[in-house]
Amino acid sequence: MQGVMQGFAIVLILIGAGLATAKFLPGKRQAISTGLTPLIFYITNPALMFILLADADLGLVLGVFTPIALLTAAFTGALFAVVSKVFLKTPARHLPAAAMATSYVNAGNIGIPLALYAVGSTTPAVSVLIAQLLVIAPAYLCMFALISRKLNPETQDLPLGPTILKSIANPVTVATAIGACFSFFHLKLPEVLHAPLEMLGNASIPLLLMAFGMSLYGQKPLAEKEGRPEVFLGVAFKVLIMPCVAWVLGRFVFGLESMELMGVVVMAALPTAQNVLLFSQQFSLKPTVPREVILASTFLSIPVALLATFLLS
Question: Which residue in 167, 181, 225, 243 could disulfide with 269, CB within 3.0 to 4.6 Å?
Answer without folding.
Answer: 243
